[in-house]
What we know:
The complex is a heterodimer of chains A (128) and B (320). Chain A contains five helices and no strands. Chain A has 128 residues and is mainly alpha-helical. Chain A starts with a helix and ends in a 6-residue tail after the last helix. By secondary structure, chain B is an all-alpha fold. Chain B has helices spanning 6-27, 31-51, 55-79, 84-88, 94-116, 126-136, 141-149, 151-169, 192-214, 222-238, 250-273, 285-309; strands spanning 180-181, 312-314. In chain B, helix 11 (250-273) runs antiparallel to helix 12. Chain B is globular and about 65 Å long. At the A-B interface, helix 1, helix 2 and helix 3 of A face helix 1, helix 2, helix 3, helix 4 and helix 5 of B.
Amino acid sequence: MNSATWYGLLGATLAGIGLYGLIVHPHVLRKILSFNLLGSGVFLIAGVVARRGADAGLPGDPVLQGLVITGIIVAFSATALAVALLLRLAEAAHTASLSPDALAVQAGDAPLPADGSDPGVARRPEGA
Amino acid sequence: MNLVPLGLVLDIGLGLLALAIALFALRTRTTYAAAVGFVAFGLLVALAWFRLGAPDVALTEAAIGGGLTGLLMLNASARLRATEAAAERERPGVPLRLLALLAAVAVAGALAIAVLALPTPAPTLAPLAVANAPVTGLGNPVAATLMAFRATDTLLEKVVLVLAIVGVWSLARDERWGGRPGRRHAADPNGVLVFFARLLPPIGIVFGVYLLFVSADLPGGAFQGGTILAAMWLLAIMARLADTPTIDQRWLRFWLIAGPAAFLLVGLAGLAFGSGFLAYPEPLAKPIILFVEVVKIVTVGVTLALIVAGPPERRGGEGR
């Protein structure tokens, strides 16, 4: 095994770790973080393909390396927007999870029921 | 002659360390610890990029992946501390976790098989890039790719940054529109943060500009340089030596769009006077690229700092 193949396998494993965290973590910031791990794995695989394309005295294919740089910047932009959305969600609904229950129970601006009871109480499932 | 090449041993150690930290960021209890792990992970991945013969990508990964993304996560996790306990209780049961594990193993396995099955000899554009680099006047083929061969990608990436800042700002509450982004930071005036915020910016600004000018022939670039400028500004903001500007100022709006606007104008000029969109006339290629890059470094610095600072949360008068 050479170094490029090793980093390729590392990238594949990181993509798996990121995907697992993205599905399993309820906290959205952990999901965003996991998504970035997944992205790092995918970029590393692209880096391995570039490394294997070393030719003409260059250590790697510069076109693919340039595309990865653009990719990292776009991934940062998307992450920043996601974090801003999450902070706004937490401010409005006092939760950092996407589960419909958490959003319905904790949303401060949920429509009030007709009888004027506390919406937080009314929306809790039976027996809670 | 060693039995096992030393470089491979280094690569395996680096990879295992990165893997261990990724697992730590995945498994650790608190979001703050996960964010700290992510910063360390970003720096290790940057080292991996050096080992893959991609110093330009390594600089970007260290500045963005480890630096700014890490800063975003650290800020957000500190502000979201109150939400963690409730989210933790929603942890899915064993069946869903097993399904997720299955999906993760399937994806990782498929990618690993794809990596092992990569064709030999590998397809490459390196000879073409080297052959055409002299036309651009740039000795660094990655810079030539970003500024000439694939300039449309770079132009669109700048537009993505503008969209990101528009998106972040549009999350502001109505009554805060036109105010200052982010919360006011608390800083001990005799603390180590303030000391570094006074010490580092002069060095950082010189280094950021150096990265831009050296990128013609060596690793670097307007983006990496702009990221360092943004980091210096953010450092001063966090130490309360400076404050974020109110977002309704004309100079700010101008610099946010100056980078992509200059790039677009050059592209349209290529359509009018040259052979096509973003086609630079050969003797002028280098000065044109330099012009776009100099405008870009300011735009990148301002945009990145404001993206990290977040939507406006304070009125213009509030703060000091």
